[in-house]
Amino acid sequence: MRPPRKPPTFPHLARQFSTSKPLYRKPFPLHPSPSTFSKTFTNPTPHHTPTKFPSSFLQPHTPAFKNWFLQTPPYNRLNIPYLHSLSSSYSLDVHVPVEITPPTPGSDVEITSFSWNSFLDYLSLPTDEIDGYNDDNISGDTTIPRLYLTQHQPPHFLLKDLPPPFTHLGFNIRSTSIRRYQQTQPSTPVNTPLNPTNNSSKLPEIDIYSSSIWLSRSSPLPSKQTHTPLHRDPSHNIFLQLSSSKKIIAIPPKLGSKIFTHLYRHSRLESTDPRGRIRDGLLTWKESNVFERVVWGCDDGDEEVDMEYDEVEKEVVELLELCRDEVFETVVERGEAVFIPEGWWHSVKSVPDGEGGGVVGSMNWWFQ
């Protein structure tokens, strides 16, 4: 009989570092031309790395930027009359799954169903009603939970403002994928030439696997930001920032798997399976906090914040520091987009803004 397997430990890392400063990560490289991006797919998948696209690549081809948001700085206030008009022509109010974060620190996130129009009303409420942030209450104490529409296909009446970006990146979308994408939302045509008319046969072909929209309120407070814990996707990912800003950390497949396995085998991630899938779609607050600490560290806007790690967490932080040249990080501003290759582990969180009261909006497409 074999002896029981011991939890893996990382080799001793002699390099010392301060836990009071954010760790260094490489910036996402900026791709020079939208039409040549597809040429990178002539390389095998293991050679793909995260890439950033400037706002000139996709923003001009995405009507949501002009239609959904008021065209005054900071361009993150919703055009509520327009959005209500899109859904008003349908007899049934569409419902969407929304994450609810209670105002009490340390509470677990829950998921419930909201009508689309009710969620829009929440997004447009005054800042002090949601964040509790005003001249008399700078701590942001409030009794109202925060809502987050996360990883859900856009309601069908929104798709005409969210055309797939792939033709502008030099791809040809397979005809079967076009039909499947349109059948998912049959009542709303996609307002884009899904494939170019010239030389399309010479372009690399892709399939659209799925798409998701992400909407939450912006806040000036670091403690009120949305956070997607470290995870990996089975397909390539194009992530487009519609309003406000988000920060992304990307970790290569082997390094991310080593970190995840280490935390899993030390019983820090009970809501997941060994392959990194989250059961029931949610981590507990305690599990999410583990990822927040080891991946983001003291990254809360302050120059120096003392972080105390236990032995399990410390090994992960030391490994990330040792492999610092493999880890990528970027802030995705309004109009910008990023490419995250399949299998790359990544974590995403919103960035505090100076005023609050706006919306943090993102859209992504998974493809192969």
Automatic annotation (TrEMBL):
Cross-referenced Gene3D superfamilies: Cupin
Region (Disordered) spans which residues? Answer: 182-201
List the Pfam families hit by this protein, alphabetically.
Answer: Cupin_8 (PF13621)
UniProt domain JmjC: residue ranges: 192-368
Matching entries from InterPro entries are given as: Cupin_8 (IPR041667), JmjC_dom (IPR003347)
Bias regions of kind Low complexity — which residues? 186-201
Q: Could you identify this protein by its name? A: JmjC domain-containing protein
**What is the originating organism of this protein?**
Orbilia oligospora (Nematode-trapping fungus)
